Protein backbone atom coordinates (compact mmCIF):
# COMPACT_ATOMS: atom_id res chain seq x y z
CA UNK A 1 0.00 0.00 0.00
CA UNK A 2 1.34 3.43 -0.95
CA UNK A 3 0.54 6.46 1.19
CA UNK A 4 0.79 9.85 -0.52
CA UNK A 5 1.35 13.08 1.38
CA UNK A 6 2.81 16.50 0.75
CA UNK A 7 4.61 17.32 3.97
CA UNK A 8 5.60 16.16 7.43
CA UNK A 9 7.76 16.94 10.43
CA UNK A 10 8.82 14.49 13.14
CA UNK A 11 11.04 14.65 16.21
CA UNK A 12 13.45 11.76 16.69
CA UNK A 13 14.65 11.01 20.24
CA UNK A 14 18.03 9.76 19.02
CA UNK A 15 17.51 6.15 20.04
CA UNK A 16 16.64 4.90 16.54
CA UNK A 17 19.14 6.90 14.48
CA UNK A 18 22.51 7.49 16.22
CA UNK A 19 24.03 10.92 15.75
CA UNK A 20 20.79 12.91 15.72
CA UNK A 21 21.13 16.68 16.03
CA UNK A 22 18.55 18.00 18.48
CA UNK A 23 17.40 21.58 18.79
CA UNK A 24 19.26 23.13 21.75
CA UNK A 25 16.06 23.41 23.80
CA UNK A 26 15.08 19.74 23.36
CA UNK A 27 15.97 17.49 26.27
CA UNK A 28 18.23 14.57 25.25
CA UNK A 29 16.27 11.37 25.84
CA UNK A 30 17.77 8.59 27.92
CA UNK A 31 19.75 6.03 25.87
CA UNK A 32 19.80 8.32 22.83
CA UNK A 33 22.93 9.01 20.76
CA UNK A 34 23.39 12.64 19.78
CA UNK A 35 25.72 14.79 17.72
CA UNK A 36 27.50 17.38 19.90
CA UNK A 37 30.68 19.46 19.85
CA UNK A 38 33.79 19.76 22.01
CA UNK A 39 36.18 22.71 21.87
CA UNK A 40 39.85 22.07 22.60
CA UNK A 41 43.41 22.99 21.58
CA UNK A 42 45.21 21.58 18.54
CA UNK A 43 47.58 19.53 20.72
CA UNK A 44 44.75 18.16 22.85
CA UNK A 45 42.73 17.34 19.73
CA UNK A 46 45.55 15.12 18.48
CA UNK A 47 45.68 13.29 21.83
CA UNK A 48 41.89 12.89 22.01
CA UNK A 49 41.68 11.46 18.48
CA UNK A 50 44.49 9.00 19.22
CA UNK A 51 43.58 7.95 22.76
CA UNK A 52 40.02 9.08 23.48
CA UNK A 53 38.65 11.57 25.98
CA UNK A 54 39.60 11.93 29.63
CA UNK A 55 37.50 13.45 32.39
CA UNK A 56 37.97 17.09 33.28
CA UNK A 57 38.89 17.15 36.96
CA UNK A 58 36.65 20.12 37.71
CA UNK A 59 33.96 22.30 36.23
CA UNK A 60 30.51 23.74 36.87
CA UNK A 61 28.97 20.25 36.69
CA UNK A 62 31.87 18.39 38.30
CA UNK A 63 33.99 15.69 36.69
CA UNK A 64 33.31 14.57 33.14
CA UNK A 65 33.64 15.43 29.46
CA UNK A 66 32.07 18.80 28.61
CA UNK A 67 30.23 19.06 25.30
CA UNK A 68 27.47 21.13 23.72
CA UNK A 69 24.96 20.79 20.90
CA UNK A 70 25.67 24.43 20.11
CA UNK A 71 28.83 24.74 18.02
CA UNK A 72 29.06 28.43 18.97
CA UNK A 73 29.54 27.36 22.59
CA UNK A 74 32.31 24.90 21.69
CA UNK A 75 34.07 27.44 19.48
CA UNK A 76 34.87 29.60 22.53
CA UNK A 77 37.00 26.89 24.16
CA UNK A 78 39.60 26.58 25.55
CA UNK A 79 38.79 29.84 27.35
CA UNK A 80 41.46 32.54 27.31
CA UNK A 81 43.34 30.76 24.53
CA UNK A 82 44.49 32.08 21.17
CA UNK A 83 41.69 31.52 18.62
CA UNK A 84 44.28 30.14 16.18
CA UNK A 85 44.91 27.26 18.61
CA UNK A 86 41.25 26.22 18.88
CA UNK A 87 39.66 23.15 17.31
CA UNK A 88 36.04 22.00 17.49
CA UNK A 89 35.54 18.23 17.41
CA UNK A 90 32.24 16.75 16.27
CA UNK A 91 31.29 13.91 18.58
CA UNK A 92 28.59 11.30 19.06
CA UNK A 93 27.43 11.05 22.67
CA UNK A 94 25.60 8.11 24.25
CA UNK A 95 23.92 10.16 26.94
CA UNK A 96 22.57 7.31 29.06
CA UNK A 97 20.43 8.60 31.93
CA UNK A 98 20.13 12.40 31.86
CA UNK A 99 19.71 14.88 34.74
CA UNK A 100 18.48 18.41 34.00
CA UNK A 101 20.37 21.14 35.89
CA UNK A 102 18.44 24.37 35.48
CA UNK A 103 19.18 26.61 38.45
CA UNK A 104 22.13 27.91 40.46
CA UNK A 105 23.11 25.80 43.48
CA UNK A 106 21.07 22.86 42.21
CA UNK A 107 21.27 20.09 44.86
CA UNK A 108 22.72 17.67 42.26
CA UNK A 109 24.83 20.17 40.34
CA UNK A 110 28.05 18.25 40.97
CA UNK A 111 26.72 15.01 42.47
CA UNK A 112 24.35 13.85 39.70
CA UNK A 113 26.52 10.85 38.84
CA UNK A 114 26.37 9.49 42.38
CA UNK A 115 22.58 9.52 42.01
CA UNK A 116 22.72 7.20 39.01
CA UNK A 117 22.86 9.69 36.12
CA UNK A 118 25.30 9.47 33.20
CA UNK A 119 24.92 12.99 31.80
CA UNK A 120 24.07 16.39 33.26
CA UNK A 121 22.24 18.78 30.92
CA UNK A 122 21.98 22.56 31.24
CA UNK A 123 19.24 23.86 28.90
CA UNK A 124 19.80 27.16 27.08
CA UNK A 125 18.77 30.47 28.63
CA UNK A 126 17.90 29.19 32.12
CA UNK A 127 19.75 32.03 33.82
CA UNK A 128 22.62 30.16 35.50
CA UNK A 129 25.27 32.63 36.63
CA UNK A 130 28.01 30.17 35.67
CA UNK A 131 26.72 30.02 32.07
CA UNK A 132 26.85 33.65 31.04
CA UNK A 133 26.47 32.80 27.36
CA UNK A 134 23.10 31.20 28.02
CA UNK A 135 24.03 28.40 25.62
CA UNK A 136 23.23 24.70 26.12
CA UNK A 137 25.85 22.56 27.90
CA UNK A 138 26.30 18.90 28.79
CA UNK A 139 28.70 16.98 31.02
CA UNK A 140 29.18 13.24 30.38
CA UNK A 141 30.73 11.33 33.27
CA UNK A 142 32.17 8.35 31.38
CA UNK A 143 34.56 9.41 28.56
CA UNK A 144 33.81 6.14 26.74
CA UNK A 145 30.34 7.53 25.99
CA UNK A 146 31.87 10.26 23.80
CA UNK A 147 33.36 9.40 20.40
CA UNK A 148 34.99 11.75 17.89
CA UNK A 149 33.37 11.43 14.44
CA UNK A 150 34.59 14.55 12.66
CA UNK A 151 36.47 17.86 12.72
CA UNK A 152 33.80 20.56 12.82
CA UNK A 153 36.14 23.55 12.83
CA UNK A 154 39.87 24.29 12.78
CA UNK A 155 41.96 27.45 12.55
CA UNK A 156 43.17 26.63 9.04
CA UNK A 157 42.80 24.07 6.25
CA UNK A 158 46.11 22.29 6.95
CA UNK A 159 45.18 21.59 10.58
CA UNK A 160 41.72 20.45 9.50
CA UNK A 161 43.20 17.99 7.00
CA UNK A 162 45.83 16.74 9.46
CA UNK A 163 43.25 16.01 12.16
CA UNK A 164 40.84 14.44 9.70
CA UNK A 165 43.60 12.10 8.51
CA UNK A 166 44.41 11.17 12.11
CA UNK A 167 40.74 10.41 12.66
CA UNK A 168 40.58 8.16 9.59
CA UNK A 169 43.73 6.33 10.75
CA UNK A 170 42.30 5.88 14.25
CA UNK A 171 39.27 4.20 12.66
CA UNK A 172 41.49 1.86 10.68
CA UNK A 173 40.65 3.55 7.42
CA UNK A 174 36.94 3.07 7.98
CA UNK A 175 34.50 3.38 10.86
CA UNK A 176 32.36 6.42 11.44
CA UNK A 177 34.95 8.78 10.03
CA UNK A 178 34.54 7.22 6.57
CA UNK A 179 30.85 6.24 6.66
CA UNK A 180 28.65 7.05 3.69
CA UNK A 181 25.99 9.68 4.32
CA UNK A 182 22.66 10.01 2.53
CA UNK A 183 22.68 13.25 0.54
CA UNK A 184 19.03 13.95 1.37
CA UNK A 185 18.46 13.03 5.03
CA UNK A 186 22.12 13.49 6.09
CA UNK A 187 22.06 10.26 8.10
CA UNK A 188 24.71 7.55 7.78
CA UNK A 189 23.70 4.51 5.76
CA UNK A 190 23.85 1.09 7.42
CA UNK A 191 26.65 -1.06 6.00
CA UNK A 192 26.62 1.05 2.85
CA UNK A 193 22.98 0.20 1.98
CA UNK A 194 21.42 3.19 0.17
CA UNK A 195 18.26 4.77 1.58
CA UNK A 196 14.99 4.61 -0.33
CA UNK A 197 14.48 7.81 -2.32
CA UNK A 198 11.49 8.94 -4.34
CA UNK A 199 9.85 12.06 -5.73
CA UNK A 200 7.22 13.97 -3.80
CA UNK A 201 3.98 13.31 -5.68
CA UNK A 202 2.96 16.97 -5.41
CA UNK A 203 6.08 19.14 -5.82
CA UNK A 204 8.35 16.61 -7.55
CA UNK A 205 11.27 17.18 -5.16
CA UNK A 206 13.49 14.17 -4.39
CA UNK A 207 12.96 13.00 -0.80
CA UNK A 208 14.33 10.26 1.45
CA UNK A 209 11.89 8.34 3.63
CA UNK A 210 14.16 8.98 6.66
CA UNK A 211 14.10 12.79 6.32
CA UNK A 212 12.83 14.39 9.52
CA UNK A 213 10.74 16.90 7.58
CA UNK A 214 9.61 17.91 4.11
CA UNK A 215 7.54 21.02 3.47
CA UNK A 216 6.11 20.82 0.00
CA UNK A 217 6.19 24.21 -1.82
CA UNK A 218 3.04 23.20 -3.68
CA UNK A 219 1.06 22.75 -0.48
CA UNK A 220 -1.14 25.81 0.35
From TrEMBL:
PARP catalytic domain span: 32-110
SUPFAM superfamilies, per database record: ADP-ribosylation
Similarity annotation: Belongs to the ARTD/PARP family.
Protein name stated in the entry: PARP catalytic domain-containing protein
Amino acid sequence: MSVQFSGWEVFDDGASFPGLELDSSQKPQSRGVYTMYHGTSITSARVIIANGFKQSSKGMLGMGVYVSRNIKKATAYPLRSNPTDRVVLQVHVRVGRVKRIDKDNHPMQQTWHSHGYDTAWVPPKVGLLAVRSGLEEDCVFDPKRVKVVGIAKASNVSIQKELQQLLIQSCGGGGEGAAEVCSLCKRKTQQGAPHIKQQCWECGKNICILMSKHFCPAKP
